[in-house]
Amino acid sequence: MQEFGVDETARQHVVEALARADSGAGTDFQRRFDRHFPDLCRLFQSLYGSREDWLDQLTALVLQNARSWQDRPAELKALDAEREANSGWFLANKMLGGVCYVDRYAESLEGVRARIPYFRELGLTYLHLMPLFLAPEPHSDGGYAVSSYRQVNPKLGTMEQLREIAAELKANGISLVVDFIFNHTSDEHEWARRAAAGDPEFSDYYWIFPDRTMPDAFEQNVREIFPENHPGSFIRMEDGRWVWATFHTYQWDLNYSNPDVFRAMAGEMLFLANQGVDILRMDAVAFIWKQLGTPCENLPEAHTLLQAFNAVCRLAAPSLLFKSEAIVHPDEVALYIDPAECQISYNPLQMALIWESLATRDVSLLAQALQRRHNIAEGTSWVNYVRSHDDIGWTFADEDAAELGINGFDHRRFLNSFYVNRFPGSFARGVPFQDNPKTGDCRISGTTASLCGMEVDPAEAVERILLAHSVAFSTGGIPLLYLGDEVGQVNDYSYASEPGHESDTRWVHRPHYPAEQYARRHDPSTPEGAVYAGLKRMIEVRAGAPELAGTRLVDFATHNSRVLAYQRPGEQTWVLALANFSDEPQALPAETFSGYSAAAVDLLSEAALQLDDGVTLLPRQYLWLRVTPS
Fold it and tell me: 431 - beta bridge partners?
């Protein structure tokens, strides 16, 4: 049968079921069904078409979507219409993200509500609240072992409070972002409890096998993620069966080859969308599809699955966006970024190479990455960050480094040594995560301020903090601040005394709210005030510079490995960003700027420059020059 015929048969089957159900979804749903059902049908059939019941499963999914749309609050339907008419709303140069743990930054959801005036002062338009759903302690993995997607951790508040805060944030121009941990659940989730009890329906929600035959076969190709937690990818259940656990022993991987799992997780997703969540951070996207004989990472079906979830949202929550979290090879990261898949994505390569450039005082790898890997599909955006809640891993491609004469293995060892203060003369005060001193292998924990040397030389640290953020704020995409970084918060070594945190050094860079430092943010004579003033200036300038909207970037050669440069094109004028990563002044001769008219202005300082005189940058200085191509 031809694909058109399958689509038509499926469509008719679903339309008849909708009519019988009398869902009351209305004409808006019908309009989107007519537009998006062919994509959903194609994707769903690709995943599950080998099953005899695939059409019944698809029909049940659409009926579920119709019910979710019917339950969607009127104010969210109005937002859907507004954002359908302005689908690139998140590409605006006024976008600014902030991320925090609710308990550590504000103690509770009510504490978050009380900080909304500060968020407005800062200029936030996007607030990512780190995992806040029910997760068992001490086996919560910082909230990434979810035991209920429909309950907030009672220590933080209630789902009703989250819904109210989402509405209040929207009223203040701030979109709410939460994590959707969809590769796995906690072993204490109701589905997992029923699977552990031997319920065959819920046993099929996970990858559970009666003996080691299939686990051994899978593990011939699958790498260990947390070998210090458990060997391989499977753990033994109490009844002797084996269940797939990619990460920690208490995080059981969901079996998306079962369409019941797809429908169940689509229901959880739409529930969160109807609470007012604007963006879902799709956690661990690289691992969501398993296939024997493969590494079970970055498989084509992982993309199909994300696209199918996206098609579900276009039917029942059309303004919801997905944010990709894929800390994998740079080529693989880009594959998840698409208007029909994940509209926005973390930019882990840029983040890692900003730190690499600070350590080496050489921008070659970062400049290469901006030239080669920055531009992405129209209608999508990077989320650019200097650091996140997680550790820093050196995700550059070895083949890219080799082109510059850099041995990737040796360079990673140097960077690890540098950032954990094992390298002579290092300014950084990071802490190793998953350290192996024998091999030099580890990843890096630490706040931005501590990694930039705040405990060593505060004045230079302030310059490094602002230099790093100048790149994240101007390359194109949504800049994201880990809240507390904007006032130079340093490492919190008391994390080790907190139950459940002692063996995870990442908590060193997840400190509690630094009230005293925030109190000094308006005093520019303090490190806190200097960092805050510098970032506020970037935020204000960026919001007023149309050239800095969107993500398009044009590379620019300075012929100086100490100075990073790139261009952001506008209609008549362009912005040329320059950043000196060295500890010495760097002079760029006039011929470097021969493609521009002589007159330029630095948007940050409002100082006029004559490019035909050349440009000299002080140590760790950055400029955003508005220029006119000649």
Answer: 445
